[in-house]
Each structure stands twice: as C-alpha cells, then as structure tokens.
Specification:
This protein is an all-alpha fold. It contains 10 helices and no strands.
C-alpha cells in the first residue's frame, strides 16, 4: 500500500464566505415557502380577490375616472406588506418558538445572513405575486403610466424595510405576541397607510404624519409612478430607505435565536 503523500490532504476548516451562505440560505428559505402550499396559495390568491373587490365602487369614491389605476398600486403595496412584514414576522416568530432558529444559531450562520436570506426569499415570492397582480390588472383594463424599473426599485426597498420591521418584531417578542402585534400593525397600516384609503381622505395634520409610514411611502410612490407617470419619487424613496436603514440593523442587532 502506498503511503499517503505529505501535503495531499489539506483541510481548511472555516465558515463559507457570506455570499455563498446567503445564496444557500435564500434557496432553503424559498423552498420552505413553496412547501407550505396553503400559505403560498393564499398569498397568491388573496391579492387577486382584493384587486377585484376594491375595483368595485362600494366603499368610497376616488378622485379618478379609472378606479383600477388606483387599485393596482395599492394591491401591490398590500402584497409586499403582507408577505414581507406579516407573513415573515409570524413565520419567524413560530420558528423561534419551536427551536428551529436555536439550531441554526449553533452553526456558523450569522444573523445578517439569516435576515438577508429570509428577505430575499420573500422577494422571490413577491415577484410571483407581481406577475399575477399585474396580469389580472391588465385583464381589468389597467394601463400603467410610468417606468416599471422605478416601480420595481420601490418594491425592493419596501420589501427590505418591511422585512426588517417584521424580523425585528419576530426576533424580540414571543410568538403569540408577534402573531397579535403583526396582525394589528397590518390592519393599522392598511387603513392609515394610504392602501385601502387614499391619504387625501385624511386631514392636513394627519396626512403630514401618515405619509412617513412605510406603507404610505410605498403606496404613494407606486401611485406616483404607475398611476401618474412620474419619475423617481424622492420623498417616498428616502422614507423607505430610512425605514430600511433603521429596521434591518436593529433586527440584526437584537434578533434572538430563542
């Protein structure tokens, strides 16, 4: 038997580069999302039902001759908020409760990679939602006006901001509290954040405050681009960047594995 040649085996035990860990974590999180067929089905179906419902002039009048032009940007905002905030917060909260994240915490996986992987997986799910929402909007005679690349940028910024907020809630509160808090915040943002009800329906002082909510920034930005054909909405973009810049580092700093 030939003796092993010196230097033939050179193991280098170390954690993989963060970029490789991020790709692997994103793929795993996305596969886990797709395995939950009921949740994915609801995430894809409910926005379409709401898109049809809000297109009916039952709740309130809008200052636009084409209601669908207001509805589609609102439904896109709702889909982003539901997936990146409510769904992510509740799912992650119960992963903490059942010690799934505790086992991940025993590995070399950093908090930042976990947060990034979960956020990117949600973004992939949102791309499927966007295809369905926009496709159904075209069936309902929706005619977008602005640059879709700007709208996509706003969606990405909104996903990062809402994902950071959702993971901050899930990583610091108990699962049952996260469930209640996420649904309550979702309901408040739905009606006070320019999604179901335009901010123009509120008084001047309330409108000046509510416009800096992340839901209002994303909703107003998408309406400005897709409904009115404007360029990059500066205030809305900076608001989303500010929320993301605060929420993501806070989630990475205070996220608890258990």
């Amino acid at each position: 038997m030939t003796a092993p040649t010196a230097g033939r085996f050179a193991p280098a035990p170390a954690a993989a580069p963060r970029s490789r860990m991020l790709v692997a974590q994103t793929g795993m999180e996305f596969r886990l999302l797709l395995r939950n067929g009921e949740q994915v089905g609801l995430a894809l179906l409910i926005p379409l039902l709401l898109e049809f419902f809000f297109n009916l002039p039952l709740l309130y009048s809008l200052d636009t001759p084409r209601r669908i032009d207001f509805v589609v940007p609102s439904i896109i905002t709702l889909a982003v908020m539901s997936a990146a905030f409510t769904g992510l917060a509740i799912g992650t909260g119960f992963e903490r409760k059942y010690a799934v994240l505790k086992r991940l915490g025993a590995t070399a996986l950093p908090r930042t990679v976990l947060i990034g992987g979960k956020t990117l997986a949600i973004l992939l799910l949102e791309l499927l939602q966007l295809v369905l929402i926009c496709g159904f909007g075209f069936i309902l005679a929706w005619r977008p006006q602005g640059d879709p690349a700007i709208a996509l940028l706003l969606v990405v910024l909104g996903t990062i901001a809402f994902g950071g907020i959702g993971l901050l809630v899930a990583g610091t509160l108990r699962a049952e509290v996260t469930l209640a808090a996420a649904n309550l915040i979702w309901l408040i943002l739905l009606f006070a954040g320019g999604i179901a009800v335009p901010l123009s329906k509120y008084g001047g002082t309330a409108r000046e405050i509510l416009q800096f909510l992340p839901s209002a920034a994303l909703s107003d930005g998408l309406h400005a681009v897709l409904q009115h054909g404007s360029g990059l909405p500066v205030r809305e973009t900076l608001t989303l960047v500010a929320w993301a810049a605060v929420a993501v580092p806070a989630a990475a700093r205070w996220f608890r594995w258990e």
